[in-house]
Structures are given as structure tokens and as C-alpha cells.
Amino acid sequence: MLKQHYSEIIIGAGIAGLSYAYKSEADFLLIERSSQLGGSWQSRNYKNSIYEFGPNSFMNRSEGLEEMIDTIGFRDQVISHDFKKSKRYLCQNDQLKLASPSSLIFSDLLSLQAKLSVLREPFLSNESQSDDESIHDFISRRFNTELADLLGHALKGIWAGDAKMLSAQAALPFLKELEDSYGSIFAGLIKKPKAPKKQTNTLQTCSFINGMSSFCEALGTYIGEEQILRETDARLLSYDGERYLLEINSQQITCDHLILATKAYQAAEFLFLVYPNLGELLNRIYYADIELSAFTLGRNLIKPSLIKTFDAFGFINANPDSSLMGTIFSSELFPERQLERELLFTSFSRPSVAGSQSPANELSRILQAYVSTKLRVEDFKLIDQQLFKQAIPQYNIGYLSIMSQINNELPSSLKLLGNYIGGVAFKDTIKRSFALACQVKSSSARMTL
Fold first, then answer.
1. Do 177 and 125 share a domain, yes or no?
2. Which residues in 197-249 belong to E strands, given as ranges?
3. Number of domains comprising the chain
4. pLDDT per position as a tens digit, 225-253
């Protein structure tokens, strides 16, 4: 039975809403439109393995996530392996090439001219042609176009977007800060004071026995199912300056603080009736579509001498004009997920357009060098495929201006959460959720006094 009033109502039970609810000490109600918690954290089973249609893993130095794992007693569900032993590849001209700091120096990933541009960078002017330049323009200016292209390919695994559109100041603020503070990225990396090391443990790539989404369900259990409404829509009716009025399951309910832990365009739809200007601004944040596909390939097809190649995280595709952006070696990420007779891949692609090749077609060409026979498209068994519309927010040129206007319009009783604010990595989302929960707690305490 719902109460008539709550201190906080949280809309959206993805990792942002769950993290906020975990940290909140208020009387809250968490509302989720779907039947499952976790939002984009979607773990799917194939035989005794798992593939993710969402985040594939996390680092054991993700402080907020680590805290929640220990608090809810989920540590025994963590699986991990040494990050340094997890190879990552860049695919150039249909060849998998090891991508690491040392390989950038000693391999043919970059030309000699591109490598020398790193040494020249500290002596360049830091005058930009624009206050808000793209990542590609920024790296081209500081180094050269070849290095900018390489970074652009690498960023596909994070943004699934275009480095010629992404804002350097918004998407790579650390590098921009080095230039602004030290006049050089290279010099800044050397001169910038190092923060005290908080972790002494070895860096690990981690997941959970039953996949990333299993943690979200466990977190929901810890928070309390009585405070969570699943398969529920909410509608904002009004705000009188003190309380919000919402319609939930045909019942009118009020709250003091409203927390929107959704995608920007979903927050826009929710707010339009009461805050039309804010809704219009949120709708201006662009999201990229992404298509995810899960394939298997028979282990017997791989040359025995090259099977260790796939003992890796996966690859980013640097081939030009390719719809396939990259592939995760899902069954090889952790020993617990290996299949006896198959390799399991999860590919991420731009949505198919006329004339573009399918992910399986591109995989068959890229992996041809590692098999004993002529690799065919039909050798890849498609087990799952889904197009995610408006999946990943893009911090494009103009994003910072939009966010500035949003912050000017935002009332103190309304909080926005999600990976469209403060970084697309979920560790950044968790950090912001924790900070806002503490902020609301402090403001409520001041009002009580």
C-alpha cells in the first residue's frame, strides 16, 4: 500500500537510481518502468556462459561499486583476473594488433611521424581556434591527425560516437585541464601532483558469477523490495513550491524531493508539463543508437597455435567506413565462462544501413587469419541481436552550453542523475549519485533545524 507522501521519489532503477537509493537515508519510493532492475545492465545466458548487452566488466578500483559490493554481502559473487593479462586489440586493415602503451611505441600502429609528435607536443602553442573544439581537432592540434584518428577509434568502445563531434572539454576534461594548467598534455602528466594512492591491490578486471545485472537485483533486495515499484509508470502533475504532486498507479502522491535517474529524453518527457523549458533543454542532448549482436564460432575452426589470441578482452575496429565498431570475446573474459566447443563473441555496431556489411560478415573477414579453413559468414551462429535506440549520450560540441542552461533552470528540489551528466562511465554515475544523496540529506537536515 502506497503512502500519500514521501520525502523522496526516485524515478528509474538503473545503476544511478539504485546507487542513490542505497545511499539515501530518507523515506523514499523507487519507481521502475520495467520488471527488471538495472536499466542498461542486461546479462544474458548462453549455455554455461554469459554475454552482456550493457557494461561487460568493472575495475576493482571503482570505489562506489566496491563499497556497495561489500555492504550488501556480494563479494563472494565477484570473479576477476589480472588486468595486465587481459589483452586488447586494435583492428587495422583486418588485422588484430595488440594495443598497449608499449605497442604504440614499438609496433606499426603509428608511423614514426606520429610517434615523434609526442616528443614535440610540449613545445607547441596551446592556442585553440575554438572555445569548444572536438576531440579530433584537439588531439590533431596537440599531436597530429594520425594520433587523433587512433584515439577516435579507441573511444568507440566508450562512446560509440564520432571524435569529430565529441567535445574535448566535455568528454576528455582531464586532458584539456592539463593543457590549460601546464600548457602541454605531456608536461602536465609529468608535473601534475600525484594524488595519494588509496589502493595497493593489483588492478583486476571483474564481473559477477551470474553477470553484471545480478548485482542490480541483489542491490534492490538490500534496499528493500517494499520501497521499489516495478512495472510502474509515474506522471508529474504539479509543483506548488514545496511539494511535487505525482500520479502513480492511479493514486496521487506527493514528495519533497524528486530524483530523476533516467535518460535525458525520458526526463524531458516526464518534466514537460511542469517544466517545459527544462524539458526542451534535456531533449537537446543527443544519444547514439547501437546494435548489439552475440555470435558463437566453433573452437575447432581456430588454429591450435593461435587459440591463445582469443584469451583477451576483445578488439576495437579501426577499419574505415565499417559498421562494426568492436567485439568483446565474451566467453574468454573469465575462465568461469569458457565454453568447451565454442567461442562466444559480443559485437557492437552502428545500426545497419543500406550497403553496409553485417557484423558476422566483417568478423569472418577479420578472423580469417586465425582459422584453418575458409571462414564463412554462416560459421558464425547468431544467438541474439538487438537494436538499442538512443542508447549512449554524446557529449558533443555544444553539450556544455546545454548543461549550463539546464543547471540554471533546475530547482533545488529536483535532481538529475544518469550518464548524460558527469561522465558516461558507470563509476562516474555512482559517484554523482552518492554525492547528490548526501547533498539532499544535508539540505533536509538544515531545513529541519
1. yes
2. 204-208, 228-229, 234-239, 244-248
3. 3
4. 999 999 999 999 999 999 999 999 999 99
* Total length of the chain: 449
Is residue 170 domain-shared with residue 293, that is, in the same domain?
no
Domain that holds residue 91: 42-109+203-212+288-393
Q: Which of 18, 17, 7, 20 is nearest to 434 (CA)?
A: 20
For position 74, what pLDDT does the model report?
A: 98
- Do both 271 and 361 map to the same domain? no
- CA distances (Å), 131 to each of 170, 313, 394, 414, in order? 11, 37, 18, 30
Report the CATH number that the domain containing residue 89 is assigned in CATH.
3.90.660.20
Q: Please, are residues 145 and 374 in contact by the beta-carbon 8 Å criterion?
A: no
pTM as predicted: 0.92
Q: Does 222 reside within a domain? A: no
Residue 188 near residue 182, CB atoms below 8 Å: yes
Summarised one tens digit per residue, pLDDT across range 266-279 is: 999 999 999 999 99
All three cell numbers of 354, joined, read: 543500406
* Same-domain pairing of 379 and 426: no
Which stretches within 192-244 are classed as H helix?
Answer: 212-223
Instruction: Look at residue 130 in the predicted model and tell me its pLDDT.
Output: 79
- Residue ranges of the chain with per-residue pLDDT less than 70: 195-200, 353-356, 441-449
Same domain membership, residue 274 and residue 354:
no
Q: Is residue 196 part of a domain?
A: no
Write the pLDDT tens digit of every residue in 91-109: 988 899 998 777 777 777 7
Please give the pLDDT value at position 127.
75
Number of alpha carbons in the 13 Å side-chain half-sphere of residue 158: 18
Q: Based on the number of CB atoms within 10 Å of its own CB, is 350 exposed (0-12), middle (13-18) or buried (19 or more)?
A: middle
Q: Which residue in 38, 8, 62 sits closest to 219, CA to CA?
A: 38
Residue 7 to residue 243: CA distance in whole angstroms: 9
Nearest Cα neighbor of 392 from 195, 155, 203 is 155
Describe the crossing of helices 145-154 and 112-120 by its angle, rounded to 10 degrees.
Answer: 100
CB 86 within 8 A of CB 312: yes
Q: 181 and 170, same structural domain?
A: yes
pLDDT in tens, 20-41: 999 999 999 999 999 999 999 9
**Alpha helix (H) residue ranges in 127-263:** 135-142, 145-154, 156-159, 168-171, 173-182, 185-191, 212-223
- Please indicate, yes or no, whether residues 102 and 207 belong to a single structural domain of this protein: yes
Query: What are the DSSP calls for 107-165, one per residue?
Result: SSSS-HHHHHHHHHGGGS----S-SS-BHHHHHHHHS-HHHHHHHHHHTHHHH-S-TTT
